[in-house]
Amino acid sequence: MTSTLTAVLDGTELAREIRTYAAAAAAELTASGTPPRLAVVVATDDESSAWYVRSIAGAAARTGIRCEIVDLGPDVGPERIRAALRTLSADAAVHGIVLQTPLPPDASSEDLADAIDPDKDVDGANPLSLGRLAAGLPAFAPATAAAVLALLDHHGIPLSGRKATVVGRSTVVGKPAAQLLLQRDATVTICHRHTKDLAELTRPAEVLVVAVGRAGLITAEHVAPDAVVIDVGTNPTPDGALVGDVDEASVAGRVAGLTPVPGGVGPVTTALLLEHTVRSAARTRAEENP
After folding, report:
1. Alpha carbon distance 36, 94 (integer Å)
2. Which residue in 218, 221, 259, 264 is deepest, having the highest Cβ count within 10 Å?
3. Residues 89 and 150 in one domain
4. Looking at residue 192, which CATH number applies to its domain?
5. How far is CA 108 from CA 69, 103, 111, in A?
6. Residue 103: CB partners within 8 Å, gap ≥ 6?
7. In sequence order, which ranges of the chain are alpha helices (DSSP H)?
8. Mean pLDDT of 120-142
9. Is residue 130 in some structural domain?
10. CATH code at 78?
11. Does residue 95 lie in a domain region?
């Protein structure tokens, strides 16, 4: 049966709730002598990246979290980036570290992320963090992948026993999102750019997560009636707007729920980076005052 109305799975309210919690926790930690501090390492002059970093810094300031932007410039070599990550990891006053992408051509986030202390790896980039996540052990999940699950929970979408398909296999979203869905007892299928007959694998999904970075990839032929679709894609248009990986006009009225772009996963991702930072600071405080 086809839906007559597609619910908008907005992330704005959830992001506000997370920021409210983070602000209260940050105030308590600051009062107790452990002010939360987030460091974002930047090695690019990409404008979209700069906009995102500014949004993190602004949200952190409003939440009472100190955010330090470590701008190394777009021509820096990988060893200088690694050195900066190690220095921040060794700094007891820093509780969260993010390595912003893109990086210079000769630098790879996969090669550099292991320089981030896993206890401060608030965006789940270190392979140790990803391994612990896969093993079901405590670790910070990549914030975007965590935002997918947070949105599903916020909107009351059940996961146990349901068929979930993830389109995308990056270590930032696709793989960790699949692991988080497995932990919630969903039956998970992962697709990627080499998958043949994509629609044959996405149509059975009751929950569909799309994180490829290709505008309009998912259309009505790819979705089941009454599926819930989480669109992680953010693709710029020639007029400066953003669109997702899902053709909204095509699936509207067919799926039960769809996250908007912008306003869906994005604000929740930023809010979770702040929450992860205060959780890291709280752990530091507990270790210093057993």
Report:
1. 7
2. 259
3. no
4. 3.40.50.720
5. 19, 7, 5
6. 43, 44, 78, 81, 109, 112
7. 12-31, 47-63, 78-90, 109-112, 127-134, 143-154, 174-183, 198-202, 248-251, 265-288
8. 97
9. no
10. 3.40.50.10860
11. yes
